[in-house]
């Protein structure tokens, strides 16, 4: 999906930065001016221009706190407006995360703000570059997790370590996916959870980090320190803390808390890329799935659900392709069939093209059939499950296998999303 | 929630240099490479066996160690461990994060993305001492801070400097300004009297053709400040062969760094003398040797 993202000051229409995705020319300055111009023209007439559509592209606008205008131009991939709005909200929150709300609202010096925003590029590019992402959190607004078995030991170690850090916010990340977290960590908003995990996985690998972050909803003007410490390849202990203790102190104390459960940490690392415990077995026709817990803001995805290579089972869909199909299925379903998750700062502004808002009932299941694969989804009060099947599964089996899968993934006593 | 981290907003200039240009010697003295460590040892049989502990089985890539892990040298080699903290300093975009990726055997980023805070990396390097023939496993803990973040948030510079054994100042061969700014930059970060090792690392050495810093200038810099200038090319080398792994590219930098750190420890322990001490002796003794044991 090729895309342009433009960021301007709302007051003066001064471009702050622009990002492009895909092999496309940069937008001429005049076009940027026009895109901003129509939006300004509308707002002088008390009209909020939200989105529009050309033959093959979609354009969406978002004004954040009356000071920053974001414009997103993407190829029309059939996704709903809800997904575009979600992406724009995520981009702004990414800016808040690393720069802080104050500097975004009170723009005293545009050149300085431009320089400050540079540190967000990587995270924003990652949000735009959806298909290459290994995770689904950016799309679902629910943070990616791994479901392991030995969680009590790890939970104990985490609680102790977080307490030492004089904090209540901490988690254990396996390649950007949450394995265990403190209660407070789960109290962060879905967007905060997703952005923090994404930030950690976009940074170059390192033994430890100490990154000042502003929580977009919880603490947008007061920074905290996000400290990450690598226990073994791919596994990082993260805490959100105040001025003390220093990163050096945290490293010094690391072994005290994490040496005892070291073997569990190692086996946790092995869960990637399947992402869920090997004792849970699901139907061999399943090539991949995304399971979202909309209440807890957690999502579990896997495109390698089988131990052995499921490509041998008559499907030649690469893992990247599986991810792309699941993303596309999700984007077609949310907004068009299922109601989109509500965004905190984005009260639903009037009608959109999203069919879900015009439906008189709440659809429970939906599916799409293609020559090479089949997609089936169902939702309950809490869960939404999207499953990708190989073509060989008979149509009539889709519903029952999908229901069974939801059962397996949510009813286990030891591991549960 | 909890008390906050302080940070700068608005337009004030932080870390303005209070001390003007300081032309004192920052370093203690230059060491003739190979005086304390055997630079080519890693190519020997014993050296290669030792390198195995920090390499993957295919010998092409470095093993990456979590903070709970460490390499194991073959048991028959009697060895000791030492650890050091090294602060990596320099302008934004000069190549600190890239150099760290190169030195640690990680993938080198091709695009500049500002480091939004502190990022550290542990690098293990086995080396052999000239004097005692002992093998030492150096644990080098590098601390890299994005320059913009360092200026915006007050706690970052002190955290990086605290208990640092060495500071590696970076300049880029393609940015003359970054070279000329070194003395002022060094004066902002360290004082000539403090006990840290100081080294300079020139990045983008592969772009030497576009460089306007001459070797003569580097030599003069070394002599004036008594600080060694090292060079690095933070690019993936596609011509690696069985014997010529990425480790060979970074070995000179790591060896030099370890040699200076080792010397500092020896001076502190009273085993070696500093140049100032030796200067006094030189009046009576016209010996030209650099080091006294
Ligand atoms: N050709 C070449 N490019 C390099 C070299 N070292 C760094 N670069 C490039 O220089 C740019 C900046 O590198 P970084 O390592 O991210 O810079 P930094 O010093 O960490 O910058 P801050 O985190 O902002 O303080 C990147 O685009 C690198 O690819 C080098 O030795 N050769
Ligand atoms: Mg950097």
Primary descriptors:
heterodimer, A: 417 residues, alpha+beta, Beta-Lactamase, 3 domains, six-stranded mixed beta sheet, five-stranded antiparallel beta sheet, 13 helices, 34% helix, 26% strand, B: 293 residues, alpha/beta, Rossmann fold, 28% helix, globular, disordered C terminus, binds guanosine-5'-triphosphate, binds magnesium ion, FUZ/MON1/HPS1_longin_2 (chain A)
Please give a structural write-up.
By secondary structure, chain A is an alpha+beta fold. Chain A has 3 domains: 3-132, Beta-Lactamase, CATH 3.30.450.70; 143-269, 2-Layer Sandwich (Beta-Lactamase); 286-411, Beta-Lactamase, CATH 3.30.450. Chain A contains 13 helices and 16 strands. Chain A has a 6-stranded mixed sheet, with helices on both faces. In chain A, strands 2-1-5-4-3 form a 5-stranded antiparallel sheet, sandwiched between helices. Chain A has a 5-stranded antiparallel sheet with strand order 8-7-11-10-9, sandwiched between helices. In chain A, helix 2 runs antiparallel to helix 5, helix 2 crosses helix 9 and helix 7 (151-164) runs antiparallel to helix 10 (247-258). The model of chain A has no long low-confidence stretch (mean pLDDT 90). Chain B has a single domain, classed as P-loop containing nucleotide triphosphate hydrolases (Rossmann fold, 3-Layer(aba) Sandwich). The longest helix of chain B is centred in the last third of the chain and has 23 residues, at 246-268. Chain B has a 6-stranded mixed sheet with strand order 2-3-1-4-5-6. Chain B has 293 residues and is α/β, with parallel strands linked by helices. Chain B has helices at 45-51, 96-104, 147-152, 156-161, 176-180, 182-189, 215-225, 246-268, 275-282; strands at 79-89, 118-128, 135-145, 166-172, 197-203, 229-231. Chains A and B meet through helix 4, strand 9, strand 10 and helix 10 of A and strand 2 and helix 3 of B. Strand 9 of chain A pairs antiparallel with strand 2 (118-128) of chain B. The complex binds guanosine-5'-triphosphate (GTP) and magnesium ion (MG). Magnesium ion is lined by residues 96-97, 115, 144, 146 of chain B.
């Amino acid at each position: 999906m090729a895309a342009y993202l433009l960021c301007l000051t709302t007051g003066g229409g001064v471009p702050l930065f622009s990002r492009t995705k895909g092999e496309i020319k940069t937008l001429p300055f005049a076009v940027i001016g026009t895109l901003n111009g129509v939006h300004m023209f509308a707002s002088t007439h008390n009209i909020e221009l939200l989105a529009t559509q050309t033959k093959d592209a979609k354009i969406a606008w978002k004004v954040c706190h009356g000071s920053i205008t974001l414009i997103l131009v993407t190829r029309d991939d059939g996704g709903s407006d809800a997904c575009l709005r979600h992406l724009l909200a995520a981009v702004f929150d990414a800016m808040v995360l690393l720069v802080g709300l104050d500097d975004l609202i009170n723009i005293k010096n545009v050149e300085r703000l431009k320089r400050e925003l540079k540190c967000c590029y990587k995270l924003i590019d990652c949000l735009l570059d959806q298909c290459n992402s290994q995770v689904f959190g950016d799309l679902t607004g629910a943070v990616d997790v791994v479901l392991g078995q030995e969680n009590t030991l790890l939970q104990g170690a985490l609680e102790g370590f977080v307490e030492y850090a004089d904090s209540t916010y901490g988690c254990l990340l396996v390649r950007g996916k949450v394995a265990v977290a403190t209660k407070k960590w789960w109290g962060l908003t879905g967007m905060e959870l997703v952005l923090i995990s994404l930030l950690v996985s976009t940074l170059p690998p390192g033994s430890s980090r100490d990154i000042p972050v502003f929580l977009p909803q919880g603490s947008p003007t007061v920074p905290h320190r996000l400290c990450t410490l690598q226990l073994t390849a791919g596994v990082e202990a993260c805490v959100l803390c105040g001025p003390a203790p220093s990163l050096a102190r945290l490293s010094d104390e690391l072994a005290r808390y994490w040496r005892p459960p070291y073997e569990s940490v190692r086996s946790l690392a092995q869960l990637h890329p399947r992402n869920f415990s090997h004792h849970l077995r699901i139907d061999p026709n399943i090539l991949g799935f995304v399971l979202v817990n909309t209440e807890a803001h957690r999502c579990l995805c896997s495109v390698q659900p089988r131990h052995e290579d499921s490509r041998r089972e008559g499907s030649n869909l690469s893992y990247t392709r599986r991810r792309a199909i699941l993303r596309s299925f999700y984007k077609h379903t949310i907004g068009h069939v299922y109601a989109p998750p509500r965004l905190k700062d984005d009260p639903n502004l009037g009608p959109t093209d999203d069919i879900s808002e015009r439906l008189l009932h709440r659809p429970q299941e939906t599916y799409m059939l293609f020559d090479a694969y089949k997609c089936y989804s169902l939702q309950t009060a809490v869960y939404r499950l999207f499953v990708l099947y190989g073509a060989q599964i008979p149509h009539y089996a889709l519903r029952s296998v999908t229901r069974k899968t939801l059962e397996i993934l949510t009813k286990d006593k030891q591991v549960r999303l | 929630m909890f008390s906050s981290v302080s940070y700068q907003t608005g337009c004030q200039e932080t870390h303005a240099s209070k001390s003007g240009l300081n032309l004192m010697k920052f370093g203690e003295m230059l060491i003739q490479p190979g005086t304390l460590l055997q630079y080519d040892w890693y190519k020997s049989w014993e050296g290669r066996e030792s390198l195995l502990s920090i390499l993957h089985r295919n010998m092409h890539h470095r093993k990456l160690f979590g903070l709970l892990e460490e390499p194991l040298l073959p048991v028959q080699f009697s060895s000791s461990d030492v650890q050091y903290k090294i602060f990596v300093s320099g302008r934004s975009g000069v190549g600190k994060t890239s150099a760290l990726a190169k030195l640690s055997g990680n993938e080198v980023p091709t695009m500049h993305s500002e480091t939004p805070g502190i990022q550290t990396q542990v690098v293990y390097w086995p080396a052999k001492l000239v004097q005692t023939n002992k093998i030492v496993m150096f644990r080098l803990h590098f601390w890299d801070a994005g320059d913009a973040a360092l200026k915006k948030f007050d706690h970052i510079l002190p955290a990086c400097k605290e208990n640092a054994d060495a500071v590696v100042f970076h300049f880029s061969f393609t940015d003359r300004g970054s070279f000329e700014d070194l003395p002022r930059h060094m004066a902002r970060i360290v004082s000539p009297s403090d006990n840290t090792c100081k080294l300079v690392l020139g990045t983008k050495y592969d772009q030497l053709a576009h460089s306007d810093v001459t070797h003569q200038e580097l030599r003069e810099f070394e002599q004036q400040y008594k600080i060694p200038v090292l060079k690095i090319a933070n690019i993936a080398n596609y011509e690696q062969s069985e014997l010529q792994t990425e480790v060979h590219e970074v070995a000179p930098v790591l060896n030099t760094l370890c040699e200076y750190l080792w010397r500092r420890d020896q001076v502190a322990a009273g085993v070696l003398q500093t140049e100032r001490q030796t200067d006094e002796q030189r009046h009576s003794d016209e010996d030209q040797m650099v080091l006294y044991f």
